[in-house]
Amino acid sequence: MKYYFIIGSIFIVLVFGSLFLFTKRTVEVETIHFNMNETEEAFKVLEFDIKQPTYLPNNMKLREVTIGMVDGKQQMIGLRYGNKDDTHEFEFSATLSGESLKDIASKDEYWQWTEVEIGGIQGLVGINDSSKDRSIVLRIDGTLYRFYSKEMETRQLLKIAKSLK
Predict the structure, then answer these.
(1) Of 30, 41, 116, 164, which is the most buried if we count CB atoms within 10 A?
(2) C-beta of residue 111 within 8 angstroms of C-beta of residue 146
(3) For residue 7, is pLDDT > 70?
(4) What are the residues whose beta carbons fall under 8 Å from the beta carbon of 70, sequence distance 6 or more?
(5) Residue 9: burial class (beta carbons within 10 Å; 0-12, 13-18, 19+)
(6) How deeply is 91 buried, as exposed, middle or buried, from its count of CB atoms within 10 A (0-12, 13-18, 19+)?
(7) Which of the four CATH numbers 2.60.40, 1.25.40, 3.40.50, 3.40.1000 does domain 2-162 have?
(8) Strand locations in 21-120, DSSP E?
(9) Domain boundaries in the chain?
């Protein structure tokens, strides 16, 4: 469980870092973490609307929420889902980012990306060459949604992604 928390935190820093890498200005990055007993509070303070999965396999529940801020403005929310014994987990994030799917597919040499249609929306399915981790990326109404898992099969992640409402 801590492993995913660390990966999620690193992911947030990398996302925000990539947003401002070439701007030659200093930015303040802050993350706010909410545990499984505080998830309702996280959604109350979230300053932008997101779609959430309506389908969750294997009795999964929301375990943790992280809100990422840049210069005091909320830019990203990350959610970690897990089953009762945390043997199956996936991470889901929504980011206010202008990054294109083409940019995502071209910038990481360790991932093999394939274009797919997800519920009528263009997206990407990625598999990490070395670790075999899986990721799905799509954009809905200007928000970039990402799904990530080490354990789940791609078809299961696609089913979750298709259920965004």
Answers:
(1) 164
(2) no
(3) no
(4) 16, 19, 20, 27, 28, 29
(5) middle
(6) buried
(7) 3.40.1000
(8) 29-35, 61-70, 73-82, 89-95, 111-118
(9) 2-162
Residues in the chain: 165
Please tell me whether the overall predicted TM-score, pTM, comes out greater than 0.90 for this model: no
Q: Is the pLDDT of residue 21 over 80?
A: no
Tokens representing 46?
Answer: 């979230």
pLDDT at position 100: 92
Asked if 161 and 147 count as a contact pair (C-beta separation under 8 A), the reply is yes
CA dist 80 → 35, 66, 69, 90, 127 (Å):
10, 9, 18, 6, 19
DSSP state of 162: H
| Residue 31 amino acid letter | T
Give the pLDDT of residue 9. Answer: 56
- The pair of structure tokens assigned to 26 is 């200093």
Query: What backbone phi and psi angles, to 5 degrees, belong to 102?
Result: -60, -40
- Phi and psi at 35, nearest 5°, equal -85, 180
CB 144 within 8 A of CB 137: yes
